Amino acid sequence: MKSEIVVVGAGASGLMAAYHAARTLVSAGKDAQVTVLEKMPRPARKVMITGKGRCNFTNVKAWNDFSGHVRSNPNFVKSAFYNLPPQAVLDWFEGFGMPTVVERGDRAFPVSHHASDVVDTLVSACHSLGVKIETEAEVAGVAVSECPPGFTVTLADGREYKCVKLIVATGGLSYPTTGSTGDGLRWAADLGHKVVPTFPSLTALVPKGYKLTEDKDLHIDRSTPLSELGEKLCGVSLKNIQLSLQVQGTEADAEFGDIDFTDGGLEGPVGFQLSRKAVKALVNGARVSLVLDLKPGVSLTELTGRVKELWAEIDKDPRSKRLREKERCRILLGKLMPWDLIPAFTAMNPGIITLERRGRADTKVWVNLVSIAKALKAWQFDIAGYVGYERAVVTAGGVSTDEFVAKTMESRLVPGLHLCGEVLDIDADTGGYNLQLAFATGALAGISAAKSLL
Question: pLDDT grade, residue 66 (50/70/90)?
Fold first, then answer.
């Protein structure tokens, strides 16, 4: 079978590449076929689960702010960003009938908050220009053809596609159940490209003692059962906290915002932001911990004073007269943190209560108010490992961008080969940045591939 342009992968970058390739050809009056090959039964499976199904599809920050959230090779994606900036992505979706809304943090969503609307719009836009999307079409390999010049794409069922231009948009290794199994990385390597070592990013970090595992493997599967401590923490969400990343005892990064304790480990926006550096450090054999500041708005001195004031108020309250010290301590903690966090806080910070033996039958319980304040400001979680690609949002690493032209997404080594999206060594923070990069690099790859046929 023949198609002038073949796109492998019907994800965010692949569908946007196919659309822009077809639009460029149609606008020029060129009769050429664009075909998308997708091994899954339906297109864009990963987009469907983005943002817990709500699909934060871009972030409308200007480049100077946006680029600070790109964790790998921001200069490489600058041309793609300006070719299809976030506002243009917003306008594109609205132009095809999908209303959008911009929420806190400059994050854009479909008004419906249904990821299916984003996928349906991408597919409909491609179909409107005659793009052929073939699902359940797993590609087994790609090869360069000498005569005529181009590529041979071999499918798992034995069929072959011949094309002049090939766009690989197969994603990374994250969420393999959606079809991202690293195929593009292997093909690029086979064609002579360097692949930067990959690791999971925007993933759950697993504190020591959080899971029932004695395995020394850093990759701790999300399905591993929770320990007693994990059960106490799972389901707790904290807002407006400060979380710092410690590598070998030295602060490597810090973020302010929200975190979630889940069946995977420590997640949420702030947890995800720090996970990239944390996982990389763990893989390199470093000792990693997270230090949680529950009261970042006040100093330790101020907080200690406030804890003592609250304790004095509890002591004076007539209802506290018959309560034991541990019960009073719980009341105090309830004034300082969410109630559902107290069991884990007391379990992980035993120093807040001291037992003093005065005799064989006489034991005095002391509540250490200074220790409570210190623990509130610096609650340490030593990190045992991380959830792997099975639930990581993105893949860090990938095909080296050094061997691709930033203004065309075309290979410097293999003419006519374009890569876009997560298969490349580009990744960013959570908050719509990664999908924006997928759309932008995909659009540029599609336009460039089509223009070379005119």
Answer: very high
